[in-house]
Design brief:
alpha/beta, 7 strands, globular
Length: 292
């Protein structure tokens, strides 16, 4: 197995200076995104600082699970196999809540009381973290009702607090991925989650990015990662003249779409979490399709 199976764009451009520079550049390029970048820019910076010192590992990959993965029957690990650096995650949770309180983002402006409550010293975010790992939507719904907010509002600081632990664990699992991996199953080969974004690398290869552990894997250009359709008559993409670096890959079979960044057309470093954020306007044109 080769741990250097692909260029890892998240790791390559994931440092505080690069992210800060990109946030400032994107605010100038796209002023409509200023308030949301004022919220998530500091969150991304806090995550990158945390990732430098986080101590978290994924659970052990058993021989049986590895054999199943090699036959493309199952992905490497379940989400529940990831461990969380609780000290780091709780510190980051408080930092993210403080960022949200100061933010002018419309999404957080009405949640100041909530954020001040859950950043209090006696609040334990551990159950929120575990609910993210367990995909426990009922827990988020029940807790949201108790705090008179939405499940998404609670999920935002919870997931973003454990993300450095998750991505660090996923990086350790890359040693199991062969250099010539051709994973053609729905979901991430590492944790099974759906892709949040895709990009075309310098050679024109199509790379998917996991929406949970942010692993990357190469797939065929003419292929739907949701229903596995390969008929080119049902697969197409949409692009605009003004933003040639962006396109939307669409499947008419399952009606899902995925945003794609052509890194060959970018004149800035590619940092996937930021690109996912500042392409929200593309989703507005896809009302008849489904996002992952």
């Amino acid at each position: 197995m080769n741990p250097h199976h692909t260029a890892d764009f998240l790791a390559a451009n994931a440092n505080v200076d690069t992210v800060k520079s990109l946030v400032d550049e994107l605010k100038t390029m796209r002023p409509a995104y200023t308030s949301i970048l004022d919220l998530f820019g500091p969150i991304f910076l806090a995550q990158e600082r945390a990732r430098e010192s986080v101590t978290a590992r994924p659970g052990k990959v058993t021989e049986a699970r590895l054999e199943s993965f090699q036959h493309q029957e199952r992905f490497l690990v379940d989400k529940t196999a990831f461990t969380i650096d609780m000290v780091s995650a709780k510190l980051l949770f408080g930092e993210i809540c403080a960022i949200a309180v100061k933010s002018d983002a419309r999404e957080m402006r009405s949640q100041t009381v909530l954020m001040r409550t859950i950043m209090a010293p006696d609040f334990d975010p551990g159950p929120l973290f575990q609910a993210v790992i367990n995909d426990d939507e009922d827990f988020f719904r029940t807790t949201a009702l108790a705090y008179q907010t939405s499940p998404q509002t609670l999920h935002l600081p919870a997931y973003n607090s454990i993300k450095p632990s998750i991505t660090s664990g996923a990086s350790m699992l890359k040693r199991y991925l062969p250099e010539d991996l051709s994973w053609q199953k729905p979901g991430c080969p590492v944790c099974g989650s759906l892709p949040v974004l895709s990009f075309l690398d310098a050679a024109g290869n199509r790379i998917l990015i996991c929406g949970f552990c942010w692993s990357e894997w190469k797939v065929p250009r003419i292929w739907c990662p949701f229903c596995l359709e390969t008929d080119s008559r049902k697969l197409h993409y949409q692009s605009g003249d003004s933003e040639k670096e962006y396109r939307i890959d669409v499947c008419d079979q399952c009606r899902f779409y995925l945003k794609t960044i052509d890194t060959r057309r970018l004149d800035r470093p590619f940092y996937a979490p930021l690109e996912a954020l500042v392409t929200a306007h593309l989703d507005l044109h896809m009302k008849n399709y489904h996002a992952a």
